[in-house]
Amino acid sequence: MGLHEGKTFSEKHGADAKPDIATRDEILKYAKNNELPCALAFQIAEDLEISASLVGKNIDLLNFKLIKCQLGLFGYPKKKIVKARPDADEELKAAIRDALSDNRLPCKKAWEFASRFKIPRTAVSGACEAMNIKIKPCQLGAF
Fold first, then answer.
1. Which distant-in-sequence residues (6+ apart) come within 8 Å of 142 by Cβ?
2. For 97-123, what is the mean pLDDT?
């Protein structure tokens, strides 16, 4: 999600890309200081019945910043809040290993595991931290 100096989030979508009006309006309703928490981005997607990635793209096109990742990976005062959880359940660790794509766990799979194992999302990302596994890609396109 980080930007190189002088770059904007919208640049990754091309010069001709423009925000969708309805999505833009919803984002503007909830954003503060050009920032939108991850949870609200997903709420917008649900309310508008569109994909999270489309909301993420519109956030980029507005050059707004996503904050407070629900996995604890970015958007907090000290960047990330997730803590390594070496004591994570072995069944969870095995599920994570089995779901890897290019040695990374997709964000969507992390959410699925949190639901399946009835644990907080940050517990899944904490297991990944302990296993030295990166979570990528983000459902909102932040990383």
1. 1, 56, 66, 69, 74
2. 98
